[in-house]
Specification:
single chain; five-stranded mixed sheet
Length: 243
């Protein structure tokens, strides 16, 4: 966690201990939807006086909705850029932005050696739209670093978010897919993409201005800052930023 956010975090932790009952809506990037729901379930068990509603979508789409007045209280994005923009334009509470997870990219499919497969002929490779989803941008960077050119030899199909990219492979509509590691199921065959092939997928959260005094939103952010939440996030295939 950045030291600049520490005073705010301490105040939230103290505030949460006396928080009153209420509701909050959390907007979460698609890759983190399942972990977020699991964290919300645990939060409800510990603090049943609070209720969280979850809305998911690509980071870019959720950002646009927030800018158009969507009634969200907390934004769990998949990048740094959008939360920073919300903070700088006054839509988010200054000092609440921090990295809650670092994502990992995986290549999903049936090929035995993925690093070599990407240099062969691929019928269809699914990935999220780089303009909307940070995992799509990481996928685009990975292809560039590996020298893979999109065209007749490598055909790419785009989903609005990383969840749609996963669905294309799972349904057989795409041969391979560059997706979030956290979305992999036990039966999936995948290659963990080396982190040096793309910029770090630092996923940041931020408290939106409309929820500056929302007891439930503050209590949930305090919970996400705790050791139990960090352990759960790591169990879902993310890394935790330690500095």
């Amino acid at each position: 966690m950045r030291s600049a956010a520490l005073p705010w975090v301490i105040s939230v932790l103290l505030y949460a201990s006396t928080a009153h009952a209420g509701q909050a809506t959390v907007a979460v990037a698609t890759n983190f939807k399942i972990p977020a729901q699991a964290l919300i379930d645990l939060f409800h068990q510990q603090q049943p006086q609070h209720r969280i509603r979850l809305v998911s979508g690509s980071t870019g789409k959720l950002f646009t909705q927030i800018m158009h007045g969507a009634p969200f209280d907390v934004f769990l994005a998949a990048d740094v850029e959008r939360p920073a923009r919300l903070e700088s334009n006054g839509t988010a509470v200054v000092g609440t932005r921090r990295t809650y997870a670092v994502g990992q990219l995986a290549l999903l499919g049936q090929a035995p050696t993925f690093e070599h497969t990407l240099k062969g002929e691929i019928d269809s490779l699914a990935m999220a739209n780089p303009q909307l989803a940070p995992y799509g941008l990481a996928a685009q960077q990975t292809l560039a670093e590996l020298g893979v050119e999109i065209g007749p030899r490598v055909k790419v199909v785009y989903g609005e978010n990383v969840g749609q990219a996963y669905a294309m492979v799972a349904s057989g509509n795409a041969e391979l897919g560059l997706i979030a590691r956290s979305m992999l199921q036990p039966s999936d065959r995948a290659w963990l993409v080396p982190s040096h092939l793309h910029t770090p997928i630092r996923q940041q959260l931020v408290l939106l201005q409309r929820a500056a005094d929302n007891d439930t939103a503050l209590a949930f952010l305090a919970y996400l800052n705790g050791a139990d939440a960090s352990a759960a996030i790591e169990a879902f295939g993310y890394l935790i930023e330690t500095s």
